[in-house]
Write a structure and sequence with these properties.
The complex is a heterotrimer. Chain A is of the alpha/beta class. Chain A is built from eight helices and ten strands. Helix content of chain A is 35%, strand content 24%. By secondary structure, chain C is mainly alpha-helical. Classes of the chains: A alpha/beta, B alpha/beta, C mainly alpha.
Chain lengths: 265, 376, 274
């Protein structure tokens, strides 16, 4: 049995008093094995972030089920850690205290918290910055804190919502390498949302390309190349071309209009 | 970190409350001393209310509020001003000197209306049995001006002397008030205030500050069909010492629907409808006003007129007293628990303000009984 | 030789004004100097007792700490400062204690906001000074002014707290949720710390308004003295240098309390505005 199982997922957003409905995700099915790195790729507005937020428990699906290790999810929980594009760090807490936030909530004793946070500080390369506040850190460093904070809870799945979207190109490439290193060391299952084909090709075991709204799986590209991958290689370029072509078709097709309430079954 | 922040916040709150409580217990609640009469400032029109609800134990006020407080059963008279200072001068008419020089005709006409109003009142009171119409009109005017019963107005007419003459007794009474200001400890007037204005002595000051030439000229003023001009006249809130002004403003007493001022060619305006709280307020209004727009004439107690003139700026407040308004007519009214001035030790008395004849009386009462006066 | 001395003096001055630059300090001193000079000149030109010059006011200020005349309501400046400060602290503490929980509640719970905000919106535009006669007649001159200060400080604190709570970054709330926070822990560990700079901003604004209220309230009637009543009484007595001295004291007290509030603001939320 796979560790993360999404079946028949559907999400309808309702605006106002139900007059206007928007079908965001439709017939989404995905099985993820433990330790896999999945990238969700799709045109903007296709519902990939919504999907991630549903898995995180921050939003609720209209239909369908999500199982983690066979358990249905009903809301946010420490079995899923999330990393945000805008970092979402608590500005009044130091890097270390940010990382310990989840542990505090679980009432982990201070000494143990210290040990765990130290471990993740070293893992993500934050040594020397433990006592810095977020405003004293660069974007890349902030996201290291974000990753460490999510990992400190030892979640089964790491959900990443365009985590490097706010970083400059160099930092972004560096952070991708760092993420792979961290992933190898922690062996976490990762669900990674991005709109960068290059990033997906560089990181993923499988790339899930989604259709325009309503978001459904258009095609899944498995990649079994060795890491670190060479961005300049021919196969890298070919794969990128194929995915880009798929995406372009979706962008041109565009999203379907809002559905009428009468369409609701 | 957030625990530290919360602790800091809690500490701040606790410290604020603690400091507040400590200072509060120390400063605002000093125990009353038995040898001190305390006072608070209230309009005389409010004093009956605050005596009634025990915010204060008594009040020193002008008529008709004395009679009103007594007749309503709120309190009784402990000291009447005529017992403290027999035949003492009280309210006067003050004019801006510059205005009197520029418009003597207007000042004369105003004083003529004042004289005629006084005569009308005297006549109404003297003939109240034979001609009750005017008397009842008088009581009605007083009651509506001061917001008291007609009975209180009638009683107040017996408690004060309404007379416009600047008699020698009036003048010596004013010299006496000036001397009292000089004699308070610490003094509220210094001899240098008098000499600084160019007067050699108290008597010399009174002789010059009072100018009865306008009053003398006013006697001969005749009604004027044409308008001479406009005068803005300041007065005290609900003070029936200044009954003459109330009568002179009434448009229903004389034929033609004109008030007395209008009969003598003067249009009177009101710089502050409802009047001023104390004599100091009237003097400040004249100081702050202009020659063009006034107020250039004020009805107020002679004591604040004297003190404010002597301590003020002669270029802004060069005034003269041109007529008397009344003598006597103030009293210290207290609740039923108080029988002697000594009983007032540690108690609170309401006054119209530090710049008033009533305050000066309170200072004198405390002095005579070897007590001290202090603001609460 | 002379340069070393001046540089030493300079260093000492720089130390004295701490973080401020030396040039800032010079500019500040110059600006105050120019202000005093203008005051002197204006007072000299107008040449009236109603507008005393700075040195007369300074003398009156020094004198105010030793001269009193309670029979006309002139108390020692020390007593007046203590009385005003007490009112300020009591009114302010009251405002803080009430506004903080009410603001947090109204900011965090939609229902509380819907119920409370119409009432707040009705009362907010009424200047606190307009309440002075009401409070003084209803509660007397001892307690009345405290409630005026309460009202003056209450609304800025309340509005800032509500605004702070409602402006909490959604990503922070999401982050806390995914890390396992429930509604109560989100409130205590995210919303509250996030709101603290807003609370302090409200406190700083409230301090300024509270001083305005205090003077207005004490002028109309305050038991036990107060700097406002000192100003009022001395104006009634035509003692204008003393009146100005009272105004200088109010300025100083306002600056000191504002300084303390700003210092506190920095201490409590050093991460703010970064």
């Amino acid at each position: 049995m796979s560790m993360l199982s999404i079946s028949n997922l559907e999400k309808v957003f309702t605006k106002g008093k139900g007059e206007e409905q928007l079908l965001a995700i439709k017939d989404f099915n995905l099985e993820v094995e433990e330790g896999q790195f999945i990238c969700l790729l799709g045109p903007s507005g296709c519902g990939k972030t919504t999907l991630l937020r549903i898995v995180a428990g921050l939003e609720f699906q209209t239909r369908g089920t999500i199982l983690i290790n066979g358990k249905t999810i009903t809301g946010p929980g420490s079995d899923r850690g999330m990393v945000f594009q805008e970092f979402g760090l608590f500005p009044w807490r130091t890097a270390r205290k940010n990382i310990e936030f989840g542990l505090e909530l679980r009432k982990v004793p201070a000494k143990e918290r210290q040990t765990i946070s130290q471990k993740y500080i070293e893992l993500v390369g934050l040594k020397g910055f433990e006592d810095a506040h977020p405003y004293e850190l660069s974007g890349g460093m902030k996201q290291r804190v974000g990753i460490a904070r999510a990992l400190a809870n030892d979640p089964a799945v790491l959900l990443m919502d365009e985590p490097f979207g706010a970083l400059d190109a160099q930092t972004r490439n560096l952070m991708q390498k760092e993420l792979l290193r961290i992933w190898k060391e922690t062996k976490k299952t990762v669900l990674f949302v991005t709109h960068s084909v290059d990033e997906a090709c560089f990181l993923a075991d499988r790339i899930v390309v989604m259709t325009s709204r309503p978001g459904a799986i258009k095609e899944i590209f498995p990649i079994d190349w060795e890491r670190p991958r060479d961005r300049a290689s021919v196969e890298f370029a070919n794969l990128r071309k194929r995915i880009l072509a798929e995406l372009e078709r979706e962008v041109i097709a565009g999203p379907t209009a809002p559905i009428n309430p009468t369409d609701k079954v | 970190m957030d625990k530290k922040v919360l602790t800091a916040l809690a500490a701040v709150v606790v410290v604020i409350i603690a400091i507040g409580a400590v200072i509060a217990s120390g400063v605002l609640t000093t125990p009353p001393q038995s040898n001190v009469i305390y006072y608070k400032t209230y309009l005389p029109s409010q004093q009956k209310t605050v005596i009634g609800n025990h915010s204060v134990d008594g009040g020193i006020m002008w008529e008709p509020f004395v009679s009103d407080a007594v007749l309503s059963g709120t309190g009784h008279v402990l000291v009447n001003s005529k017992d403290l200072f027999p035949n003492h001068p009280c309210c006067v008419i003050v004019v801006r000197e510059e205005f009197a020089v520029a418009h003597p005709d207007l000042v004369n006409a105003v004083l003529k209306a004042h004289i005629e109003a006084n005569k009308w009142i005297a006549d109404a009171v003297a003939n109240k049995v034979t001609n009750p119409t005017n008397y009842s009109k008088l009581l009605g005017m007083g009651a509506s001006f001061s917001g008291v019963s007609e009975a209180a107005v009638a009683a107040s007419l017996d408690d004060m002397i309404l007379d416009y003459h600047l008699t020698s007794a009036f003048k010596s009474g004013m010299a006496n008030f000036t001397q009292l200001y000089l004699n308070t400890t610490p003094p509220l007037l210094k001899m240098s205030d008098i000499t600084g204005k160019g007067y050699s002595s108290v008597q010399n000051f009174i002789d010059n500050y009072l100018n009865d030439s306008y009053l003398a000229a006013a006697e001969a003023v005749q009604p004027s069909a044409t308008s001479l001009g406009t005068v803005s006249i300041a007065y005290l809130t609900g003070d029936l010492h200044q009954f003459a002004r109330v009568v002179a403003m009434n448009t229903t007493l004389f034929p033609g629907g004109k008030n007395l001022f209008q009969i003598y060619g003067v249009t009177v305006t009101d710089p502050q409808p409802g009047g001023y709280q104390n004599g100091g307020g009237v003097m400040t209004a004249i100081t702050a006003g202009s020659l063009a727009n006034g107020p250039n004439v004020g009805y107020l107690g002679c004591a604040p007129a004297i003190r404010n003139y002597l301590t003020g700026d002669i270029t802004k407040l060069n005034t003269r007293i041109v007529a008397a308004v009344n003598s006597e007519g103030s009293a210290l009214v207290v609740n039923s628990d108080i029988h002697t001035v000594k009983d007032l030790g540690g108690k609170v008395v309401a006054t119209p303000g530090v710049s008033s004849i009533q305050q000066l009386m309170l200072i004198e009462i405390a002095k005579q009984y070897n007590m001290t006066l202090s603001s609460k | 030789m002379s340069t070393t001395i001046s540089s030493r003096v300079r260093k000492r001055l720089v130390f004295f004004v701490r973080k401020g630059k030396f040039s800032d300090f010079i500019v500040m001193a110059l600006s105050i100097g120019v202000f005093l000079a203008l005051w002197y000149i204006a007072s000299d030109l107008l040449h009236t007792v109603y507008f005393p010059n700075p040195s007369t006011v300074f003398d009156a200020l020094m004198n105010s700490f030793t001269y009193s005349n309670p029979q006309v309501g002139v108390l020692l400046m020390g007593q007046n400062i203590a009385a005003s400060m007490t009112r300020f602290l009591e009114g302010f503490a009251l405002a803080f204690i009430v506004a903080l929980p009410v603001g947090l509640l109204m900011g965090y719970l939609r229902y509380a906001y819907d119920v409370g905000s119409p009432i707040v919106e009705i009362f907010r535009p009424i200047p606190p000074i307009a309440w002075v006669p009401f409070f003084i007649i209803l509660l007397g001159p001892l307690v009345g002014p405290i409630w005026v200060i309460f009202l003056g400080a209450f609304f800025p604190i309340l509005s800032n707290v509500i605004f702070g709570v409602r402006s909490v970054d959604n990503t922070l709330l999401d982050a806390a949720k995914t890390l396992g926070a429930k509604r109560i822990t989100i409130f205590s560990k995210v919303v509250l710390p996030y709101t603290i700079p807003f609370i302090m901003a409200g406190v700083t604004i409230g301090v300024g308004i509270a001083w305005m209220c205090i003077v207005a309230a004490e002028m109309l009637g305050a038991e036990g003295g107060g700097v406002g009543s000192y100003i009022r009484v001395n104006s009634d007595l035509n003692n204008f240098p003393a009146m100005f001295a009272g105004m200088v004291v109010i300025a100083a007290l306002g600056l000191i309390t504002l300084g303390v509030a700003r210092l506190l603001e920095k201490q409590v939320s050093p991460w703010r505005g970064k």
